[in-house]
Amino acid sequence: MVIGKSDLKNIMEQHDLKPSKSLGQNFVVDPNTILKVIRAANIEKHQQILEIGPGLGSLTSQLSTASKVVAIELDRYLIPALEEVLNHFGERENVEIIHQDAMKIDWKEFFSHRQGIWKMVANLPYNIATPLLVTLLENAPDIQSICVMVQLEVGERFAASPKSKAYGIPSVKAQYWAETKVLGKVSPNVFLPVPKVDSAILQIIRKPSPPEVNYTNFSRLIQTAFQHRRKMIRKSLSTLIPVSNFTIAEISPQSRPEELSVEDWVKLANTLEMAK
Q1: What CATH code is assigned to 215-275?
Q2: By CB atoms within 10 Å of each CB, which of 2, 175, 230, 259 scores lowest?
Q3: 185 in helix, strand or coil?
Q4: Residue-wise pLDDT tens digits, 4-43
């Protein structure tokens, strides 16, 4: 049984809880949205699920009926309510609850003793969505796919194409590691409290083999160029790359950073290795 809005309100009252703005908490309370996310995640029994920011457990309880779940929650005040929801609406024995800040986890260490095939499914806290997703793509190759609810603006950034306004550092980094797609918009009315912005379901599927590149160089070039996104890259990257390298990479030095595809950035970064 999927937990509903009235059930969650009652649990919040019983535990004297209020969503924390500082922690970016907006609890999903619509059963149809919860089921939509789970269908999109396409979970199989042998796969393990990472959920960050389970909150009151509306999504967690349904995930627990599909597979094993590791739920990481920063707000210790929510954990008793989360336990209660899992006991009444889910499969408590299928969930490992960790009270920790996901932004401070060493993901290589985390997965070193959690072997298997992993998917991430979550309603991500608004305040950590972008840096967390990039960090997981860079440092948690065990996670093969991600299906999350994020602010629409965040989803559009991750899925943006070159030459679009939303295209930037998260776009390039995410699309280096994975295929990204916004599966659909999510109304503010499915959350408690109701946010002032639309959300989206974002799908990220890791590539089996990303392009070969020195990722440190790749990342440095992107970070530097997009800090001055209106400048031509020959100016913004003048301290990092000789002008002749643009010719080698077959890229116009007059280009702006948002005009370059992931493949272009890879080619440009690889010219630094050729110079060595």
Answers
A1: 1.10.8.100
A2: 230
A3: strand
A4: 889 989 999 999 998 888 888 899 999 999 999 999 999 9
